[in-house]
Amino acid sequence: MAKSPEQEHPIKAFGYAARETSGHLAPFNFSRRVTGEKDVTFKVLYCGICHSDLHSIRNEWGDALYPQVPGHETVGVVTEVGSKVTKFKVGDKVGVGTLVGSCGSCDSCKSDFENYCLKFIPTYNSIYHDGTMNYGGYSDIMVADEHFVVGIPDNLPLDAVAPLLCAGNTIYSPMKYYGLDKPGLHIAVVGLGGLGHIAVKFAKAMGLKVTVIDVDMAKKQEAVERLGADDFFLSQDQEQMQARIATLDGIIDAVPVVHPLQPLLLLLKAHGKLVLVGIPDKPLELPAFPLLKGRKLVGGSLMGGLKELQEMLNFASKHNITADIELVKMDYVNTALKRLEKADVRYRFVIDIGNSLKPTA
Questions:
Q1: Contact 120, 101 (CB under 8 A)
Q2: Quick one: which of 139, 250, 314, 332 has the fewest CB in 10 Å?
Q3: Is the pLDDT of residue 3 over 90?
Q4: Per-residue pLDDT tens for 280-329?
């Protein structure tokens, strides 16, 4: 007979879980494994709310496992380390991002891109090597293999750094891989939201010229005056689009809904690159001719590996980059998810786990 979540492992844990496709989160008692020889156990202090959490708890991607404790932007302080752990000690500030396991032997793993391993194990809504369910960061404690734990630089506040563990890496990785990190390049960020605002910050720190493209003119002042973008225009403004044809070296497209790609492709110079990092719930239409005319590239990217994740955090530390957040209590999480669905947040929700998650009797 299968054991209950509370009895699977020896260490008691508490969090909030979804039980079915409504995605409603409620208090949940479960358990974590004991600290293995290569494991790091830490007290969770903050966890970011990612848009993928919303998709997952509602089974919108068709792979949901219940009960489901979401959260893959998790930071806290180490409370115990295994006997063979070398990178961390008790008291260190650490984080766990989007994955907690991989095969360790394939080409992707050997190249430090565990995120592209065919057997990679997401932080939640997945089954671990031992056959038990993985529960995410909307909880009071986490245990992870040290390979999948990163150190948080001391100068970065834990609450505002949490979203970088997913959103930050999702932006940093493609900018590096596609060569859109070279000073002097001109790129556009499409969609000034949770991913987009971090893209602007990273791009400016890399020495790029940055244009923001959005559908909301109210974001212009925010983009230009506060985030430092060099230009801003509306995607539905045909005159503005025409005036900028063939002016961009690259585009980071962070829009999570269906939208036309052809107008964006026309903005690229020859050999320009359009990189998709948003995940629309339906397929996008990709016209061939704009690609052929100018030898342009459309690519995608799914976060980064662990080496790149730590590199991104060190870059953020050097340039003092964090996410713009709204800190919320655990019992506000369902309201926060409803607001997130309406894009009613500037720009990422973070749950104050340490001060507001209280176990039930």
A1: yes
A2: 314
A3: no
A4: 878 999 999 999 999 999 999 999 999 999 999 999 999 999 999 999 99
Do 273 and 187 touch, CB atoms closer than 8 A? Answer: no
Residue 67: cis peptide before it, omega within 30 degrees of 0: yes
Q: Is residue 273 helix, strand or coil?
A: strand
The pTM of the full predicted model, rounded to 2 decimals, is: 0.95
- What ranges in the chain are assigned the alpha helix state H? 51-57, 107-110, 158-161, 167-177, 196-205, 220-221, 238-243, 262-267, 289-292, 306-319, 333-341, 353-356
Q: Is the pLDDT at 202 greater than 90, yes or no?
A: yes
**Residue 180, amino acid:** L
Could you tell me if 279 and 166 are in contact, meaning their C-beta atoms sit under 8 angstroms apart? no
Mean pLDDT over the full length of the chain: 96
Q: Tell me what pLDDT residue 291 has.
A: 93
Overall average pLDDT of the 79-87 stretch: 98
The DSSP code for 34 is -
Q: What is the CA radius of gyration of the chain?
A: 21
Strands 248-253 and 186-190: what pairing?
parallel
Phi/psi-derived region of residue 16, left when phi > 0, alpha when psi is between -120 and 50, beta in every other case: beta
The Cα–Cα gap between 325 and 194 comes to 9
How far is residue 271 from each of residues 94, 248, 295, measured CA to CA in Å? 40, 10, 5
Would you call 207 exposed, middle or buried from its count of C-beta atoms within 10 A (0-12, 13-18, 19+)?
Answer: exposed
What pLDDT, on a 0 to 100 scale, did the predictor assign at position 1? 59
Alpha carbon distance 285, 289 (integer Å)? 12
Domains of the chain, CATH where assigned: 11-157+324-352 (3.90.180.10), 167-300 (3.40.50.720)
26 Cα distance to chain centroid? 23
Q: Is the pLDDT of residue 338 over 80?
A: yes
* Residue 130 to residue 141: CA distance in whole angstroms: 19
13 DSSP β-pair partners: 30
13-53 pLDDT tens trace: 999 999 999 999 999 999 999 999 999 999 999 999 999 99
